[in-house]
Amino acid sequence: MKPKRGIYAITLKASAELDRGTSDRYIGRAENIDKRWHNHRRKLVAGRHKNSLLQGAWNTYGADAFEWDKGEAGDEDD
After folding, report:
1. Which residues contact 25 (CB under 8 A, 6 or more apart)?
2. What does the alpha-carbon distance between residue 34 and residue 32 come to, in Å, rounded to a whole number?
3. What are residue 37's phi and psi, to 5 degrees?
4. 16-53: pLDDT as tens digits
5. Which of 1, 18, 26, 72 could form a disulfide bond with 6, CB atoms 3.0-4.6 angstroms apart?
6. b/e code 15-40 from CB counts within 10 Å (16+ = b)
7. Beta bridge partners of 70
8. What residues are paired with 69 via a beta bridge?
9. Dihedral of alpha carbons 25, 28, 70, 74, sign
């Protein structure tokens, strides 16, 4: 089975509750969405994510405050 590729978003669910008028969301693209999510999560838990804003929000609100959305893309041959 081929890895699932596509666009994904990591969203801070608490941003709506904070009423900041913004959407706190990290959007990316990956050839293997599941592997990419694993890498994001591993780095966030270790406190070493390259995006300092995402890391800071993760440190402040914790893992349960985030939602992982993935939109899978089909093969180019489809």
Report:
1. 9, 10, 11, 12
2. 6
3. -60, -45
4. 555 555 568 899 999 999 999 999 999 999 999 999 98
5. 72
6. beeeeeeeebebeeebeebeebbeeb
7. 8
8. 9
9. positive
Reduce the secondary structure of the chain to three states and give it as a string: CCCCEEEEEEEECHHHHHCCCCCCEEEEEECCHHHHHHHHHHHHHHCCCCCHHHHHHHHHHCHHHEEEEEEEECCCCC
Separation between Cα atoms, residue 16 and residue 26, nearest integer Å = 15
Is 54 within 8 Å of 26 (Cβ atoms)?
A: yes
**Residue with tokens 């913004």, as numbered in its chain:** 22
Distance set, CA 64 to CA 14, 41, 43, 67, 69 (Å): 10, 12, 16, 8, 14
